[in-house]
Amino acid sequence: MRRSVLVTLLLTLCAGAAYAEHVTAPIPVGIAVAQTSNVALFGQEQIIGAKIAEKYFNKSGVNGTPIKLVSQDTGGDEAGAINAFQNLINQEKVVGIVGPTLSQQAFSADPIANRLKVPVVGPSNTAKGIPQIGEYIGRVSAPVAKVAPFALKQALKQNPKIKKVAVLYAQNDAFSASETVTFQETVKSMKLEIVTLQKFMTTDTDFTTQATAVLGANVDLAIVSGLAADGGNLVKQLRQLGYKGIIIGGNGFNTANLFPVCGKNCDGILVAQAYSPEANNPVNKAFVDEYRRTYKKDPSQFSAQAFAAVQVFGEGLRRVEAATKKKITQLELSVVRTELNKALRSGSFVTPLGEISLDNEGEINQKTFYVSQIKMDANGKSGKFVIVK
Ligand code: 1QQ
Predict the structure, then answer these.
(1) 107 lines ligand 1 (CB under 6 A)
(2) Which of 185, 267, 309, 370 allows an S-S link to 123, with CB 3.0 to 4.6 Å?
(3) Is residue 307 assigned to a domain?
(4) Whole-prediction pTM value?
(5) What torsion, rounded to 10 degrees, do the Cα atoms 233, 242, 218, 228 define?
């Protein structure tokens, strides 16, 4: 009896020791973004940016050890994001996760990583409250509160006579609900009047009700917070019904994958951005060159932010080696995750977004923002973001 208890104890201890796993080369970095569903309009651009970053970083790697992106599709909803996170953490043993695509997904999936002490860098989560989810949650995507007001200032520059404003937002999406608060506050602080406030769902395809209300309100400016598929269709139907005023799109409009959705009706939309292909630093130049070589056009914001997210993980791992004076592969996974989380919050990184850093809470410090206007090509299918500020 006693003997068997002892044996059991020993076996348990051995098993425990075997679980103190080390990180193996190449160092696995998770990427959990949407590769299916409507949200893939963003996720496809994110994967491209992340892969360019992986290749760029691995020219020297973590002092010679390469990183390897392990990708897991989240789809467009919360359950998909939770599954992807659990798989990357428990099966793939990643040192950290880039993702998910939507704030709506982050509020469900991030707490899981946080509890397991796995660092997360959000590449596109812009809603209020993301870094506050926990100690292990950060982002390289500047919050809407910082970015969105620039678009309004630009709209007023283009038409100083704007007085009446329509505000529209997707009520089932955390980012859209957060962004519209910023837009509404900014409208009021500029002494403009919100004459109609319209809600929709990201799953909607018919926006007749909202578009009719906007036309009836006789506004000079319409501001839309939604995702690319719904937001693009809304704009298209608004123009088709005869709306002639200025349109501001929020962060959900920051993808070239919007262009086929609203077609020629995308022309003229104003969008504030956290990235410009013209940003003057060597990392951005390398990124833009590589992107242009392959895709024959300029990268958009979501690709650049995903690049930055992978890059800070890579450079963070180098900092862990410097701080511990050990190779990553000599350290236990749990130690790497904790040290990496600290490293992400120490010092700055020169990225395609410019020089950035994460504060203690994981919030990004970023200096420069832009406003673009969409210019559609004559074919009505392709187009580009033209920086106006
Ligand atoms: C968020 C966003 C979306 C537009 C990302 C694609 O900003 O969900 O936070």
Answers:
(1) no
(2) 309
(3) yes
(4) 0.95
(5) 10
Alpha-helical segments (H) within 159-256? 174-189, 208-217, 228-240
Rounded CA separation 388/329 (Å)? 47
Ligand 1, atom 9: nearest CA belongs to which residue? Answer: 125
168 and 198 share one domain: yes
Helix, strand, or coil here: 387?
strand
Q: How far is the CA of 159 from the centre of ligand 1 (A)?
A: 28
Do residues 130 and 164 share a domain? no
Pocket flag, ligand 1, residue 127 (CB < 6 Å): yes
Which ligand 1 atom minimizes the distance to the CA of 178?
A: 9
160: in domain: yes
Residue 52 CB partners (closer than 8 Å, separation 6+): 287, 290, 291, 303, 307
CA of 46 to the centre of ligand 1 (A): 12
**Tens of pLDDT along 316-339?**
999 999 999 999 999 999 999 999
CB 42 less than 6 A from any atom of ligand 1: yes
Structure tokens at 352: 């395609």
User: What is the atom index within ligand 1 of the atom nearest the CA of 124?
Assistant: 5
